[in-house]
Every structure is written in structure tokens, then in C-alpha cells.
Design goal:
By secondary structure, this protein is of the alpha+beta class. The protein has seven helices and five strands; from the N terminus they run αααααβββββαα. The protein has one domain: Roll (Nuclear Transport Factor 2, Chain: A), CATH 3.10.450. Strands 1-2-3-4-5 form a five-stranded antiparallel beta sheet. It is globular and about 45 Å long. InterPro entries: MlaC/ttg2D, Tgt2/MlaC_sf. This is ABC transporter substrate-binding protein.
Length: 197
């Protein structure tokens, strides 16, 4: 009798996390698919001219699922722990402005058809592997996500095996080593200023 109860308890402990992960995986895919559909509807046919309001709306849809705080910390690396709170806040603000602006550089990529290859959920983190196909070009686009207060958000994107956060980290650390953190901030301020014009 006790052995039977014990067996059911073990099975239950195995099934519940698996079911939870599957439910979360479905929720993540639904969220990303809804975002993709919103972007495609707003983009319209190729060659469409966009008003500033439409461009701002596209920026919001594309970027509002990104956690800039987490991505910025990764991008700055150990330097993030060495700077003041005020410098951190300005860095995250400048970083997010630049990322948002860059997201509209090549709007055609958002017209790609997306295939979800796998979604792995491990407690409050997840990894999504997709393939985006635009005409004859296939591109692997993978996402790292984190659960922030019951909301899944992207903390990094890897395109053709190149991590966005790692790429920025290499750029930033190179500038810091050669010219210092202040020089990096000056560069980011100039880039962010161009973004807002």
C-alpha cells in the first residue's frame, strides 16, 4: 500500500513540472506569435510608407517584450558593478534608445515566416529556437527569456549564432579598455541623440 502511494507521489512530482513547463512554453509561443502578427499587420505590403506614429508603434511592439535592464547589464559586463547608480540609469536609458532605433533599420526582416523549432523552460528562464524565412533566405533567431513578475521578457537574441548582448559587450569593453567608460558614454550619447532626430 505504502509502495503504491510512494509511486504515485513520485509520478506526480515528475508530471507536474513537465506539465507546467509545457503550459509556459505554449504561453511563450503564443506571446511571440501575437507580437509577430501585430508587426506584420502594421507593416502592410512591401514598399509601404510609414508615418511617425506608425514607426513609433512599430518600435513599441518590437521592443516592449525586451528587458533592457537585463540586456544592458549583460552588455556592460563587470563594469556595470563598478559604476554609480546614476551612471547605470543613464547607461540603460541610452542603450534602450539605441536598440529601439536600430530595430527599424531593416523592417523587411519582420515579414519573414517564423517556425518554432523548440521551446525549453527551466523554472523562470526559457530558451526559444526559431527559424525565420524571408524569400529564399533562412535565418536562425533564438531568444533567451526570463520571467519578471509573471511576465516573460526577452533578455537576449541570437541571430545566426551571434548573441546581441555578447556583441555589444565586445564593442563596449573594447572602447572601455582603450579610452575608458566616459568615452563609451559620450559615444552612446551621440548615437542616442541621432536616434531621436
Amino acid at each position: 500500500m505504502f509502495r503504491t502511494i510512494y509511486t504515485f507521489l513520485i509520478i506526480g512530482l515528475l508530471v507536474i513540472p513537465s506539465a507546467f513547463a509545457q503550459t509556459e512554453a505554449d504561453a511563450i509561443q503564443a506571446m511571440l506569435e501575437e507580437r509577430d502578427q501585430e508587426i506584420k499587420e502594421l507593416l502592410g505590403p512591401k514598399g509601404t510608407d510609414y508615418t511617425q506614429d506608425q514607426r513609433d508603434r512599430l518600435k513599441d511592439i518590437i521592443n516592449d517584450v525586451i528587458n533592457y535592464q537585463s540586456m544592458a547589464e549583460h552588455a556592460l559586463g563587470d563594469t556595470y558593478d563598478e559604476i554609480s547608480e546614476e551612471e547605470r540609469e543613464e547607461f540603460v536609458s541610452l542603450f534602450s534608445t539605441i536598440i529601439r532605433d536600430n530595430s527599424l533599420n531593416r523592417l523587411d526582416i519582420y515579414r519573414a515566416e517564423v517556425t518554432y523549432n523548440s521551446i525549453e523552460v527551466n523554472q523562470d528562464s526559457a530558451y526559444v529556437a526559431t527559424t525565420a524565412q524571408l524569400e529564399d533566405v533562412r535565418t536562425s533567431v533564438d531568444y533567451n527569456l526570463q520571467d519578471f513578475n509573471d511576465t516573460w521578457m526577452i533578455t537576449d537574441m541570437t541571430i545566426d549564432e551571434v548573441s546581441t548582448a555578447d556583441s555589444y559587450n565586445r564593442q563596449f569593453q573594447s572602447i572601455i579598455r582603450q579610452r575608458g567608460f566616459d568615452a563609451l558614454m559620450d559615444s552612446l550619447r551621440r548615437r542616442a541623440s541621432r536616434s531621436s532626430t
